[in-house]
From TrEMBL, chains A, C:
The protein, known as: Pimeloyl-CoA dehydrogenase large subunit
Pfam families: Acyl-CoA_dh_1, Acyl-CoA_dh_M, Acyl-CoA_dh_N
Domain Acyl-CoA dehydrogenase/oxidase C-terminal: 231-398
UniProt similarity note: Belongs to the acyl-CoA dehydrogenase family.
Domain Acyl-CoA dehydrogenase/oxidase N-terminal: 6-120
GO molecular function: pimeloyl-CoA dehydrogenase activity
Keyword Protein biosynthesis: no
Keyword Ribosomal protein: no
EC code(s) of this entry: 1.3.1.62
Every Acyl-CoA oxidase/dehydrogenase middle domain range: 125-219
Keywords, comma-separated and alphabetical: FAD, Flavoprotein, Oxidoreductase
TrEMBL record, chains B, D:
Acyl-CoA dehydrogenase/oxidase N-terminal domain span: 6-117
Coiled-coil residues: none
Family annotation (InterPro entries): Acyl-CoA_Oxase/DH_mid-dom (IPR006091), Acyl-CoA_Oxase/DH_mid-dom_sf (IPR046373), AcylCo_DH-like_C (IPR036250), AcylCo_DH/oxidase_C (IPR009075), AcylCoA_DH/ox_N (IPR013786), AcylCoA_DH/ox_N_sf (IPR037069), AcylCoA_DH/oxidase_NM_dom_sf (IPR009100)
PANTHER family: ACYL-COA DEHYDROGENASE, ACYL-COA DEHYDROGENASE FADE28
UniProt name for this protein: Pimeloyl-CoA dehydrogenase small subunit
Length: 400, 384, 400, 384
């Protein structure tokens, strides 16, 4: 056992760190530091830079553009990226539908879709949740009825993140209404330009419009867009959700945010002294840092164990990553609220911030903090709520 | 010791709750918010008709002579409905200053207007550099013949963009963070040299940054005596905190109610989610927080009107700590138990979450008040 | 609404405060301040003092020795007592079996038992819990079989607090084995000197022997010792447990302990400054004080509402008192651990402390602190565990 | 980065766990504890035979040359079995001082005895007034010809009542709380002027208060150079904390296991209590704490042997904070989920709870280490 990075890993870390710092356009970085959403254009620009370097999809099989890096190196790569901070690659493509396609898709699907995912020529979104099926995903109702060489899809998806930008959506649809819950579900790839698709944005409590409802009204989908076998979609979805859980700890994001908290607390004065000099505040931050370091080590333990696990299975301990990762993300936004104080109050829509026609109200970094606090409530809800994660651990690990 | 409402208080509670239930639903509120001032003039007039705007003022000043309990009742009802109107700004804050420190002329000039709704006022007592310390006043007022010239910047003035008059704190002597040397002035919001930058707040209400540049006011604009406004400001702030606590309790009640409703109707895995014991226990945690907050709000409301400034400050800070902590816990559980829909503007719960988060910030967050309480040796001492 | 004490209530508070301070033997008070258990002799002494004053059972009906005080005055009385601090009257007699006897007992039982409870001539203990029936009390198995004018009792009780001193035990016993759970239970008063009773002490993790197992081996109990009707014992038990919950917030005990924490923290030096002068520590204590004040007000609200409730019914909100009261008691013992630091470690059996043959190890107040921390874990378990209280609130108040 | 145990490490783990499983059950432990020294000489000899007592010492000093991982493995196993023997006192603490600072003669005189179990030693580095600050040394050592005379009081010396030799910290120069001017001396526990007041600790182990009155030692008793012991003491303390964390993880594992067992077998309301979702989620909370503690212990074990004193201190303090917090949470849940039986000495769970509570206190509680970590700017900085 040796938990220090090897020489080789340290050299790799320096290499990616240097590359990220040099290759990322400064304006994109500044926008993230300021707490703004990354725009579509910015993400495409960044993905193309990674793609040119050959690093757009490091965890994919080498034949599809992957790098063959060890899990630890992949982790280093992601950590360094989020600490640059640079935008994360679009997960719906590279972490979700991409791996489903190269694992369960046919050759035609692989050659058609994978390159365009890696280069972000195609923007993907996820069509899993429905209004009636949240934690109980398998109760979904969107129907796909076979009609010749096409499926006819009717129904509604919700919480579809960034659907407004999307070229494609991957969907779970019910193809056998008579089968038991999980058994009649298929995994379909649907062109967002298909007639009959309507996207309705949902405003979230932070004021943003990240998520959408997507309605399907007699949408015709060629059968060639079915992944794997009909009615076996639940298996592919489980595989996908497992992959989702691994990256969900967001250790790098939280580290970067703690640096930011310390930087801002050094600028804030409370009762005549710098906030960062108050023992109570420093200790509050340090307590979060401890939990984050423990999470990082747990994350690394899970990753190191990955090589030994059967392909496509998940360490149930990864549920810890979700629970603790989301708690820590929420704790960091609470600390930001502590730092900013009263100037968390003004509400400035993000498009106005970008326009910068008016002088900022309070410190120029203040306006994104309350929205971040509100928005971060979601991380314990999405991707399998923390309650569901606890049920998983109770059953799969504790045998209760 | 008596926890019962009097007959009049029960009537007050019933009538304000009925009005809001009828006319302040979630959709109606959305429309009021979209208007010019960000609130409903029509509702404002109805509050006036019900006597709510006259409530805390003495009868001889044209008011109704209500006390702490009456304010608590009204603020709690306003919290339940998440109202947008400047009751807190005009009646509690500016009205509080007038009640405690206004002279006869000032009272008779202003209180009738506040009480009948024709005049709204705001209290501009915070500054950009001051964080939660209202004695951190850099705005200056210099003698100018009989009157004064005021220069400076005031921050986060609640409803400052729509009110007719302002009460402004300014330094007439002393150093930047001295408690002595602060004075209060009545300033016309449209006076020369007053510029107001209004904006919405995270909770859908309104506030303004206000700059005063060589603003001239007469001798009659000074409230109380020169340089000794701090006891007035701190007393009004304490009463304001008690009122905010009551508003928060109203919000909490509604958040708890909405969450229970959701637990009882939302179905997953073939059953209502309210049947899951882990979620039941968390709904209980919310309930416990609600009741503890209610208890502390009663306590603070009662002591906030007392004359012992230290006892008052202790009780008020303790209540604000409780409310701030409960806001975190109740907010967190309410959103989490609602799941995805709790994250949207389309459900009421998120609006309550945002308002209670802002209430935590208004007039000092839980950290600020915990520090203040600890510096005053806490609630339990050898002699108490 | 007026939450301030009236003039009359304030005068009453001063009266009881003065009386307690003057009447309580100083050695008894010092023992409590030092964190030691009150001995049987001390409690008897103190109870006789109260009894002579006519204040031994203030909440009882006036005809049985009560005072006729309002619930608020009763509360003031108890609060002042615990803040003196003076020993609490023996709950098993005055709060538990006493009210059951005057509410459900017959005249013979009332005149035989009540006076001796009030004067602590009879020391009572409680025989409810059994090894197999903890939270699920109604599953109890101890049997009582009618044989002429006697019941023959066989079985085992546990967690019987201070049974080693007891003259009498009140027991729930199963008299109808065929009835559904709650329906076949009776409430029996049993003389501890009866042949066939064995008491076995259980050492608890604080090192003390407060609790015991009590074994019944063909113990013969006259039928005149049955309270109320046969097989109706569950109703009397519910009544008793409800009464138990009202006093369980222990606001006065926690107040007194917080005073003690502040006093000790003023004596402890950490890194060259007094612990009480450290902002972090002061704020930690203040946070507990806030929760305690909220609990006190909730307690008073429940008490004030009592007059309006149907006799013998409980405000389900009283479950809050149990939950928060126990959490706060535990929080205060954690603060004591913070204060004492390393000298929490030495273990000194209480009889040795009393003997005081050896010099104390560390500060002379240190040795009782870790035991108090350990012992106080029990308060969220006994009297209906906090989980059971949450179930009660969920069902009875929230309708879940 | 590599989380796997080597073949030798796996063998070590298996053999020590097997030994304890066979001979260190709950009842056997009770008997060992009732003996004169409060532990089992027989087990002590078996540890020696297994090579455990020689583990951390260099091969050239008669040891086995084990590293941080080996110590972690053994301490975790000892935690699971809740052992009573002076391994931590003699091998980790006193042995640690000798390893890092002993000269050739001192090593060859003492290490073989420690390694074969014939000699036990204790480290007397804390004082009554010092709380957790080991640099707070009032005990003095004055030159006396070639040798020294030591006077003072040492506090909470683990196993100090039964060991053969002590290592004592004493001030040879400087003020009471200076880091400079502290020296370490080897003192025979039976030397003239040494009086030991032994007592049991809350967790069933032993410690002593030790008074030194004009205790004379020779020049060869001084470890390292005069006045510069602080880096040695602080390094040994950091390694000691890492070892304690591993012991705590062993305890946590067992507490979690015992609680699961209880949840699966205890029946109430006609079903096992482990079927109640609220209790399931709390068992999960315990599990999460256990795994987080395990992670932090690995981290601290690895960094505790590094040469960068600040990095080491940060990692060790962070781990101790995690362990202290987890001890509270796991302890609380374990007792609560056991219900009444968890409160008794007759069930194992309470003994683990008491030991982990004491581990939180040993070498600084969570508050102390959180403060220390915060003063060192935490774990995450601009450059890290």
């Amino acid at each position: 056992m040796d938990l220090r990075f090897t020489e080789d890993e340290l050299a790799f870390r320096d290499e990616v760190r240097t590359f990220f710092r040099e290759a990322l356009p400064p304006s994109i970085r500044e926008n993230i530091v300021a707490g703004h959403h990354t725009s579509k254009e910015e993400l495409v620009t960044w993905t193309r830079i990674l793609h040119d370097k050959g690093w757009a999809v490091p965890h994919w099989p080498v034949e599809h553009g992957g790098t063959g890096w060890s899990p630890i190196k992949q982790y280093i790569y992601l950590e360094e990226m989020s600490q640059t901070p640079a935008p994360a690659p679009l997960a719906f493509g590279v972490n979700m539908v991409g791996p489903v396609i190269y694992t369960f898709g046919n050759e035609a699907q692989k050659s058609r879709f994978l390159p365009r995912i890696a280069s972000l020529e195609d923007w993907w979104c996820q069509g899993f949740s429905e209004p009636g099926s949240g934690s109980d995903l398998a109760s979904l109702k969107t129907r796909a009825v076979r009609d010749g060489d096409e499926y006819v899809v009717n129904g509604q998806k919700t919480w579809t993140t960034l659907a407004q930008y999307a070229d494609w959506i991957f969907c779970l649809v019910r193809t056998d209404p008579d089968a038991r819950k999980q058994s009649g579900i298929s995994f379909l790839l649907i062109d967002m330009k298909s007639p009959g698709i309507t996207v309705r944005p949902i405003q979230t409590i932070d004021g943003g419009v990240e998520v959408n409802e997507v309605f399907f009204d007699d949408v015709r989908v060629p059968v060639e867009n079915l992944v794997g076998e009909e009615n076996k979609g639940w298996n592919y979805a489980k595989f996908l959700l497992g992959n989702e859980r691994v990256n969900i700890a967001r250790v790098g994001v939280s580290k970067e945010r703690i640096r930011r908290i310390k930087e801002l607390a050094a600028q804030q004065r409370v009762g005549g002294e710098r906030m960062i000099d108050q023992a109570e505040f420093r200790e509050k931050v340090a307590a979060v840092e401890v939990r984050l370091k423990a999470l990082e080590m747990t994350q690394l333990r899970v990753l190191a164990g990955e090589a030994k696990r059967e392909k496509g299975t998940q360490d149930p301990a990864s549920s810890i990553l979700k629970i603790k990762g989301s708690e820590i993300q929420q704790a960091t936004t609470e600390l930001l609220m502590d730092v900013v104080g009263p100037y968390a109050m003004p509400y400035i829509p993000e498009d106005e911030i970008d326009g910068r026609n008016e002088p900022s109200i309070g410190p120029d970094w203040a306006s994104t903090i309350a929205p971040a606090y509100f928005n971060t409530r979601k991380v314990s809800i999405y991707g399998g709520s923390n309650e569901i994660q606890k049920n998983i651990i109770a059953k799969a690990i504790l045998g209760l | 010791m008596d926890f019962d409402l009097s007959e009049e208080q029960t009537m007050l509670k019933d009538s304000v709750e009925r009005l809001l239930k009828d006319q302040y639903g979630f959709e109606a509120r959305g429309k009021y918010r979209a208007g010019d001032t960000g609130f409903s003039e029509k509702m404002w007039n109805q509050y006036a008709e019900l006597g709510l705007l006259a409530l805390p003022f003495a009868e001889e000043d044209g008011g109704i002579g209500g006390g702490a309990t009456e304010t608590m009742i009204v603020m709690e009802a306003f919290g339940k409905a998440l109202i947008l109107e400047p009751f807190f700004a005009s009646v509690i804050l500016a009205g509080g200053v007038l009640r405690h420190a206004g002279n006869g002329e000032q009272k008779s000039a202003l209180i009738p207007g506040i009480a009948d709704g024709s005049l709204t006022m705001a209290l501009a007592c915070a500054e950009p550099q001051g964080r939660y310390d209202l004695f951190d006043v850099e705005t200056s007022a210099r003698k100018n013949g009989d009157g004064w010239v005021i220069d400076g910047k005031k921050a986060l003035v609640l409803h400052g963009d729509s009110v007719g008059k302002l009460i402004v704190s300014a330094r007439t002597s002393g150093g930047a963070r001295d408690e002595d040397g602060i004075s209060l002035f009545i300033v016309d919001a449209g006076a020369d040299g007053v510029s107001r930058h209004g904006y919405p707040t995270q909770d859908g209400l309104r506030a303004a940054e206000i700059t005063l540049q060589s603003v001239k006011v007469g001798a009659d604009a000074l409230i109380g005596s020169e340089g000794s406004a701090w006891p007035v400001i701190s007393r009004v702030a304490d009463e304001a905190v008690a009122a905010l606590c009551a508003e928060a309790v109203g919000c909490f009640e509604k958040m708890h109610e909405l969450t229970l409703e959701y637990l009882k109707t939302r179905s997953q895995f073939g059953t209502t989610i309210g049947s899951f014991q882990a979620l039941q226990h968390r709904a209980v945690d919310m309930f416990v927080e609600l009741e503890q907050s209610r208890s502390m709000t009663m306590y603070a409301s009662m002591l906030a009107t007392g004359d012992d400034a230290v006892e008052r400050a202790r009780a008020v800070s303790a209540a604000k700590v409780q409310i701030g902590e409960s806001a975190k816990i109740i907010g967190r559980e309410a959103i989490q138990l609602h799941g995805g829909v709790g994250m949207t503007m389309e459900y009421a719960i998120g609006h309550y979450f945002k308002r209670t988060t802002m209430i935590d910030i208004l007039f000092g967050d839980a950290n600020h008040h915990l520090k203040r309480l600890a510096q005053m040796d806490g609630l339990i001492r050898e002699d108490a």
